[in-house]
From TrEMBL:
Entry keywords, A to Z: Membrane, Transmembrane, Transmembrane helix
Pfam families linked: DUF6286
Species: Microbispora maris
Transmembrane parts of this sequence: 37-60, 86-106
Protein name per the record: DUF6286 domain-containing protein
Residue ranges annotated for the DUF6286 domain, each copy included: 95-198
InterPro entries in the cross-refs: DUF6286
Length: 202
């Protein structure tokens, strides 16, 4: 035991040390954009395949005409740039491009919560549902709590408890302290905010 440490002081489950800090942990556990990338790749593959099929079939003298290219080309030749329909098409394409850029730039919500460890080169990943169950179990262990529930919403933990006691404020403070201790023990790399709701007797 370290000299000068209070024996009753609770130590975190994983001791925070140097190494992966908040930003590095977020990058390490950032979810991949597999589904949007697959959809965009399939769309580009389909467009490229149709274009190649039309070009090859036209060169062979047997155009397949799956896409009404002649009608689209005629509309493009006869439509001015300031036409409302042309502006609507351009706006739709710009919006699609902007959405794709945002999907690529903004990190998604991962399924794992990064926890610090005593090893500077090691991070532990805890599923969000597992963390929510741990917080729910800790809230259920508080005296006066009849039932508790917990959910993870991004980096926010929502804990709701039911009690038969009328002093809901005191129950709420005890639950907040207990769940806060559990979060400190698990030591997530990213700060998790806590919101506690108490439902008293009806």
């Amino acid at each position: 035991m370290t000299e000068g440490r209070d024996p009753s002081e609770k130590l975190p489950l994983f001791v925070p040390m140097r190494g992966f800090e908040g930003a590095k942990a977020a990058r390490a556990f950032r979810p991949s954009r597999g589904l949007p990338a697959a959809v965009a790749a399939l769309a580009l593959l389909g467009i490229g395949g149709l274009t190649a099929a039309h070009v090859v079939s036209a060169l062979l003298g047997r155009p397949i005409r799956i896409v009404p290219y002649e009608d689209w080309a005629r509309w493009a030749r006869t439509t001015a740039w300031d036409d409302n329909r042309a502006l609507a098409v351009a706006a739709a394409l710009a919006l699609i491009g902007l959405v794709l850029m945002l999907i690529a730039a903004v990190p998604g919500r991962g399924r794992m919560i990064a926890l610090r460890t005593g090893d500077p080169d090691l991070m532990v990943g805890l599923p969000r549902r597992t963390l929510a169950r741990a917080l729910r179990a800790r809230a259920n262990a508080v005296d006066g709590v009849r039932a508790a529930g917990a959910r993870m919403r991004g980096w926010h933990a929502d804990v709701s408890v039911r009690t038969d006691l009328r002093d809901t404020a005191a129950i709420g403070e005890r639950v907040r302290a207990a769940v806060g201790d559990e979060l400190a023990r698990l030591s997530p790399a990213h700060r998790v905010s806590l919101h506690v709701r108490v439902h008293g007797p009806t």
